[in-house]
Structure formats: C-alpha cells, structure tokens
Amino acid sequence: MIEEAKNFKNFVSNLLESLSYGIMIINPEGKVLDLNRNLSFMLNIPTLDVKGSHYRDILNEQIAAVFDELLQDTKSMGFVMDRQINASVVGEIEVKMALATSALRDDEGKLFAITIVCREMTATQELERMRELSKLKAEFIASVSHDLKSPLTSIVGYADLLIDLAKDNKNESQEQFAHTIKDEGMRLAHMIDDILHVAKLESNSLQLKPEQVSIPEMIDEILKIVSGHDKKFKFTTHHDDNFPHLWVDRNQVKRVFFNLVNNAMKYSPQGGEIKIFARCFADTIQVDFTDEGIGMSQEELSRLFEKFFRVKSEATKGIKGTGLGLTIVKKIIEAHGGTVAVKSEPTRGSTFTVILPTRLITQKPEII
Fold it and tell me: pTM here?
C-alpha cells in the first residue's frame, strides 16, 4: 500500500513536469501542495522547494493579488476560465498570461484543493517554431530550385545546338520546334530564379550591398535595353533637378525598376506611352511608373502583391509570367525601408509608385 502511494505520487509529479503549461496546486487556505518547473519559470519562483508555503510568500504583489481573486472566485463558482493579465514578472518585463482554475472536491463535496493553470500568451515558442518552419521551407525551395536549374541549363544549351543544326539543314519546322524548347526552358529558368529570390527575401538571407546610385541614370540604362525591343511604346522620363544619389543595392533596385517597366509593357498590349517620373520630397523619394494599359479592379489591386497572383481576364490570356515579379518588387523596396503604392482603374492604365525614405541620401539601408 505504501509502495503504491509512493508510485502514485511519482506518477503525479512526472505528469505535472510533462505539461507545457505552468501548474500549481494549493489547499483552500492558500498553501502550496505542488507545482511544476514551468510555473516556477513563468512566475519567477527561484526554487521548487516551496511546498507548505503560502502563495503570497513566494509571488510578487501583483500576481499574489490576482491569485487572491482567483481563489475567491473558484471557491464560489468552482472554476475560473482564462483570466488574462499583463504581469511584470522579472523587473520591468511585462508578460501576457492566461490563468484558469478548477476546484477539487472529495466524495462529500468538500473542497480540498485548487489547481491553477498558467499559460504564457506571448507565444514566444510558437513564433520561434513558425520562424524555423519558414526557414526550412525557404531552404527546401532553394534546394529544389537549384536541382532543377542544372538540367535546365543543359536543355537550353542543347536547344541552341538543335537550332544551329536545323539552320544548317534548312529545316524550318525543326528550327521552330527547337526555338520553342529554348523559349520554354528560358521561361522556366526565369521562374526558378524568381522562386529562389523570393525564398532568399523571405528567409532574410539576401544581403543588400548598398552603394551610391543615380536613380535617373539607372532609369536611362533600363530604357536603353527595353526600348529597342518594341516600337509600339513611347517612353517619357522626367526627374527633379539636382536629383540626389541614394545608398541602395544597385542590382536589386535595378531589378525592381526593370520589373515595373516590363510589367507596364506586358499589360499595355496596344502600346502607348509609358511615363517614368522621379521626384524628391522632404521625407521621401518617389518614382512613378505610369502606363496606358488594361488597368485593374479594386479587388485585383488588393491581391496584387501576393505570391503567384496574376490578373485573369480576356485581355491577359496571352500574357506570360510567374506571378512573383511584384512580390519581389515589394520585398526589395521594403528591405530598403520603403514601400510601393498602386493606383489603377480598368481600361485606364496603372501607376506604380516606388517610395524610398530620404535618409538613403546620407545613410545606408540596414543589411537584412
């Protein structure tokens, strides 16, 4: 009998220690019958050797006052459900907690103990778990994307060889098929590059390399590349006089601007004017990219920066893309401390505005 009682006591003790919540059991007079390590940690109780002590002697005044109310309410109602408090447990550090109680009664209905369950609501451990999952997801995507990229390079290379052979043999059908293989291979390669880029941005593994950059010169560089591809478009640029150089990552911001110009061209199938205006205000540097394209509805605007989201309509059926370009744009600009705004109406075109803080004139952005 004594051995059974001892085993049961050990069982209860092990059970309390296995729980992720903080647990304290007190008698009706407020003396501690048992508690687990989680509770001692949450409430900053320096030792577990407090059995027989009154809870008021081991808790700080704020927590002890809450226990007073819990004890009174539990005696009258039998339990208390999730009473949330903000408690200063260690120094000035405030922790959000939820406390619940339950009355324990014997066969005759007499109260002999009260259990107090304490849950930390700051969700620190849950946040750490989510960060770890996000990191693992990004690593997995990067690994798979890298494994796909190597054979794609070979496919595109062999497609070039097939194109040359078809030209030598003057076989237009074979040449057309080989071009299709190459084009689709290149498109898939671009998609993989975008997926890798998003994975790096989301896992904070992308290192910015800031240098002083002229925004007007960067815009001119991009337009020299794209203007020769399609004569349907007229490009108009303007920037304020004495436009300041900014501390930004040249390659990343160039990618942003190229994506926005490319978008303006893709979603303006009839051509038209594309305006790029760079302006300097007291607190912000703003670069507007305005097109005369198909535009978007308010519902489409609300989802525009989601991964893989693409506007679906009759007008966009033949337009290819990964649905990641604008996600990359937003994340790169946010990494520089800025933001991206959009105005658009169906059939009335769109304006994308890149907004950067003027502190980048004199300060480098924080490395992410």
Answer: 0.56
